[in-house]
């Protein structure tokens, strides 16, 4: 089987890893000139950990842990309160889990584990220019390099705003759910005053500033906000479609009076090589495949960072999709595997796309009274999370949340 994957993020390389075990020939095209290192902490939750363990990469992921000690809030005077330390046991309730890794580090781990496989090729600075045909016999594409190639399967794993998806699926097959929240991430130099917690400061008017450590000796900065009126909404939505300069200007005018370390962050923004602006939206598709083409990861079902499940879904989806493809007999149409994959995986995806009730409005207080209520609530919560049922409500990370199918070709893998 010849498989073309668009996108070397998380889903693309993870799928290449599993497909390589089935004897398929895999080509991954990536728009960026090198692996795209952007992004901050992602979680590997529940059954997705089992998949990473089956890949023999769990220790490598742990080695790249973000070194974060836990999550704490910062009050209006800059003092920390309501600490939620990372817990080693499954009952810990914290926004930080012990399986957190930077998105870029995880992408690199999956890439390194596949790049030397004899049946996997990566082509950087390459995109799919045009889908020429998608029929009973093959899917034919024209690459940006000019060459035309035929494959048995094309996987769109080129992220939330996938160009492949846009070429194949009509607009009404895709639902974009707007979470009315805008985020920017970038990296700043670490100063002696920085600590190893995820420090979250809620400024008024629905603005959040956070600082957290990484394993590379730098600090990861984030602004997050929810528009308070129609004019703000229009400005942020417009910025999400514009360039970095305009996005940073908007941040400057919006966060100048936010307090805490806002000035430090604003003055470091334009030097950052990895400034990234994201409108928080979910992607839902009525069907993930068409003919020989299938969407995977954020392309098919971006759940938004509010769920903390984007990476876990990409990893689980890769395993199940590769597993269902491995069951095909010679001559079978891949749509047979696409359909069984979707039947197995869609109910879990739909459940995971439910955003926890606490987010995002509650954590973006507009007024002083709401911020006081949030602070009191979180202070109290940090003291009572030892209550097991409450903790498991917040962090069921070690639960087997998705029942992993067993595929003959994947058994007997090394594990750590
Ligand atoms: C820059 C960035 C930062 C992120 N930061 C966070 C974060 O801090 N926290 C969090 O929870 N989630 C974050 N995410 C989302 C998270 O990566 C996903 O939810 C999850 O890991 C699933 O990844 P994916 O492989 O489906 O998509 P992605 O990780 O988005 O990877 C898609 C890949 O496709 C490439 N690509 C894009 N267009 C094309 C094209 N036309 N042709 C070929 N390749 C293309 C991209 O360069 C990228 O390498 C971020 C995503 C990105 C892209
Ligand atoms: C987490 O990262 C730190 C620093 O990079 C490292 O010293 C530590 O061993 C790592 N933890 C695990 C469990 O690998």
TrEMBL record:
Transmembrane segments: none
Domain FAD-binding stretches: 2-353
Stretch forming the signal peptide: 1-16
One matching Pfam family: FAD_binding_3
Any one GO MF annotation of this record: FAD binding
Record-linked InterPro entries: FAD-bd, FAD/NAD-bd_sf, FAD_aromatic-hydroxylase
Protein transport keyword on record: no
Coiled coil regions in record: none
Keywords: FAD, Flavoprotein, Oxidoreductase, Signal
Name of the protein in its database record: FAD-binding domain-containing protein
Annotated source species: Lophiotrema nucula
